[in-house]
Amino acid sequence: MASNTMASDFVTGSHVRNQLHEHEERRSPTRESTTTNKICRICGDEIGFKDNGLLFVACYECRYPVCKACYEYGRSEGNQSCHQCHTRYKRHKGCPRVVGDEEDNYDEDFEDEFQLNKEQKDYKFYNQNQNHNNGAAIPSVAAIEGKDFEGEKETYNNEEWKERVEKWKTRQEKRGLVTKADDGGNDQDDDDDYLNAEARQPLWRKVPISSSLINPYRIVIVIRLVILCFFFHFRILTPAYDAYPLWIISVICEIWFGLSWILDQFPKWFPINRETYLDRLSLRFEREGEPNRLLPVDVFVSTVDPLKEPPIITANTVLSILAVDYPVEKVTCYVSDDGASMLLFDALAETAEFARRWVPFCQKYSMEPRAPEFYFSEKIDYLKDKVQPTFVKDRRAMKREYEEFKVRINALVAKAQKKPEEGWVMQDGTPWPGNNTRDHPGMIQVYLGSEGALDVEGKELPRLVYVSREKRPGYQHHKKAGAMNALVRVSAVLTNAPFMLNLDCDHYINNSKAMKEAMCFLMDPQIGKKLCYVQFPQRFDGIDRHDRYANRNVVFFDINMKGLDGIQGPVYVGTGCVFNRQALYGYDPPMSEKRPKMTCDCWPKWCCCCCGGSRKKSKGKKKGFKAILGLAGLYSKKKMMGKHYTRRSSGPAFALEEIEEGLEGYDELEKSSLMSQKNFEKRFGMSPVFITSTLMENGGLPEGTNPGSLIKEAIHVISCGYEEKTEWGKEIGWIYGSVTEDILTGFKMHCRGWRSVYCSPKRPCFKGSAPINLSDRLHQVLRWALGSVEIFLSRHCPLWYGYGGRLKLLERLAYINTIVYPFTSIALIAYCTLPAVCLLTGKFIVPTLNNLASIWFMALFLSIIVTGVLELRWSGVSIEDWWRNEQFWVIGGVSAHLFAVFQGLLKVLAGVDTNFTVTAKAADDAEFGELYLFKWTTLLIPPTTLIILNMVGVVAGISDAINNGYGSWGPLFGKLFFAFWVIVHLYPFLKGLMGRQNRTPTIVVLWSILLASIFSLVWVRIDPFLPKQTGPILKQCGVEC
């Protein structure tokens, strides 16, 4: 359906390359003009030169590039030492003294002037080893040797000294580093000086957990580990001979639980918080009267079936993106329609039209959140802090327009319920290209943007792009991961922003400054180039107050993720993540510049007594290893580019031959390190335009590009055969091979040495919806667990993959935990069955305890409780959230995780793909009505069976104790505690079965009773604990002798 908001014609295309087009204009990429000044590694500004013509050097030990302003701030407000070698800064001439300077050395002001010869000797070495911006070289020493240097004298008289001081003050005032001391000084100058100084401050800071909170937690973890060792020592060496099979099963389960606890606990050893400074970001990159220097962001929204994912929800997500607090010309929203639905296409056209009114309304009144459905449904005082007299009138008008917009969307949904026999037809009378969802061409439609419709106030809006990749029979499309990779290529051709925000269609932007929060890290001059992504926590709307099934997942997002942030960074969770585009292209992060050490790599780092080694030889070996893998050209290219020049291109390039011509300025060594034309095609595919975009680290399109030809090239890169014989899904983009492609993609980046950051502002940046009824929640957990099993059985398993990379040990433990946790279900379901067996047979897994053994048992339970309390104390998680997480760990473990293990084994080993279908009943219209909605699924059978078994066991055990008298109650208490532990953990599941009417579906009861009865009959028939008699059966004769 066409719309007046479209910025270009609707374009479709097939995978047959010859049917598309030929590009009209071709230019070879040229290198940008280079600058001659060094860049400060702290604030990003130019370092500048001293009065004598030499580059300012803050630290003479390592010559770490720092400007004079940051040097003086570090001496006055910081730790007074170098950021790289941590050597205390020496006082330069003209700099104010600070505490710790040598007061008796009065000639220190002239130290730099007497080190001229030393600087000239060392400058050539410095010029060859430092990282220059855009390949620029600092002026050589020969160019400045002829200059006359001021102040060759050893001493100065009073008049000369005063004159030098005044000159220094004048220079400092011009640079905005000091304020004038005049009594009638201008307040505006003082404000400007303050703002300049504030803009140089870090954009974020690490907030470590208080030592009074974290140190007791670590101590208890160590104590618990020691107690666990003694506990296992007792359990293994003290078998229960009267219940030997039960004892063996219990010990094996307990050892597995202990290993799982270690994998989960130790990655939480270094938890941290992070705090961002958005005001400093604005002062540095958004100064008034200057062009906005924030880098562009491409936003990806993925959807498959608009009938299951309502278009009104997707529209709200898109509207929140278009209204984000970020320069409109630097935001582009790409919506991936993997179902080729005309319903979504028409809904986006309506959304683009409504955005022309919604976006200026949000910007005028600074609304939060900027998704209209959730803004108008908030039960808060919407007049709070609003002072504009027109706000109430505008809000009422906007609410009415939104309701009309919803009606139009509902009409489209109603129309889409019944597909015409001849298929859908567009407004211009042409058939909809996606009538066959499994066989259709690629489709792209551009709305809004600089060439599209303006808002109602005549201002530009962010660009909105509809994308549906080509699908043909016989091709593997790789579900969501394949759709995301198609968006990566389309965005690289059309906009090529250096950063990409990935959102699910039901996750809207709740904090309009979310992108700026991410930029505080990604545009940081110190760590920005080393970050692969910034992950935000997931927060959810529409969850009941008690969060019965732990949908909020607070323990994971507020404890585990903060722990990983202190190691190498959080895992990627599939949404709410801002990526560095270069990291998705499979490149290595830039290496940190380190001073050479007089050691070799032939022994471990802690061994310093070896001699005769050479680092160059070691590096050659590493390079040779990567060459074996076929990636030597790529790795050396990325490393070289990180140290000598930044990849940029200022002209369009549509042929790989012309790319080679654009590299004329490089020397032979650099040209040999760049990938050849064949390697480019093998890695990225047959698109010269896309390959050119990968060479531009800071993004952007080549100048003079033709938008029409770019659209056609974008159609080509989303063709179904484009990824054949390339590294897409293997080393580039979202990684294929698992339904949880998010974990696999993040794992590959961390193995290459990239870091990630966890950003959790006070106001959640993103919010979404979560399934709150029992069946849907279990199926969601089933999908996650199945993906973990697939990774475990693949070559990317963290147990054996990536040991030659730069993945840290604790980070590896965390990834191992994410892929082995489904297998805990086997031990868990066995352990939850043991209480019922013990109560029915009168046996127990633990023999009679002596005093020492009782102490170990009590110490273990006490350490578990204390660990939980201290964890809640430093994390701020409530005890209710923690307890719900513990309960659902058991519920999911005995149901969804167990099915995932068997389904994964069948899928990977036998090639059998099984699906568990859900049959839904009518939902309740009341608030949280879906909470009580019941859907039959086979996942409900195992936990229901466990509940019935343990309840029957409790009744049988109590009855037996009543019949046998007082002496039977003592041993019974341990068994009852064991059984009640299982029942209490499964209690939310039991409530979910009952529903609102407290009724359990008959089929669930029948299946569970049948399984419990079969198990009981088999157990009685086997009766493994009665001694087998081999001799004659002896009976009493009945005669009293």
TrEMBL record:
Disordered: region residues: 1-32
One term of GO molecular function: cellulose synthase (UDP-forming) activity
Listed EC numbers: 2.4.1.12
Skewed-composition ranges (Basic and acidic residues): 19-30
CC per GO annotation: plasma membrane
Keyword Ribonucleoprotein: no
Places the protein is found: Cell membrane
Principal cellular location given in the protein's record: membrane
Associated pathway: Glycan metabolism; plant cellulose biosynthesis
Organism superkingdom: Eukaryota
Positions annotated as active site in the UniProt record: D338, D742
Start and end residues of each Cellulose synthase RING-type zinc finger domain: 35-105
Positions contributing to UDP-alpha-D-glucose binding: S302, K308, E309, D338, K479
Cofactor note: Binds 2 Zn(2+) ions per subunit.
Recorded catalytic activity of this chain's protein: [(1->4)-beta-D-glucosyl](n) + UDP-alpha-D-glucose = [(1->4)-beta-D-glucosyl](n+1) + UDP + H(+)
Gene Ontology biological process terms from the UniProt entry: cell wall organization; cellulose biosynthetic process
Transmembrane segments: 217-237, 244-263, 819-840, 852-870, 890-910, 931-952, 972-990, 1002-1022
Keywords: Cell membrane, Cell wall biogenesis/degradation, Cellulose biosynthesis, Glycosyltransferase, Manganese, Membrane, Metal-binding, Transferase, Transmembrane, Transmembrane helix, Zinc, Zinc-finger
Enzyme class at the top of the EC tree: transferase
Annotated membrane topology: Multi-pass membrane protein
Gene3D superfamilies: Spore Coat Polysaccharide Biosynthesis Protein SpsA, Chain A (3.90.550.10), Zinc/RING finger domain, C3HC4 (zinc finger) (3.30.40.10)
InterPro entries, alphabetized: Cellulose_synth, CES_Znf_RING, Nucleotide-diphossugar_trans, Znf_RING/FYVE/PHD
Stated family: Belongs to the glycosyltransferase 2 family. Plant cellulose synthase subfamily.
PANTHER family: X-BOX TRANSCRIPTION FACTOR-RELATED
Protein name: Cellulose synthase
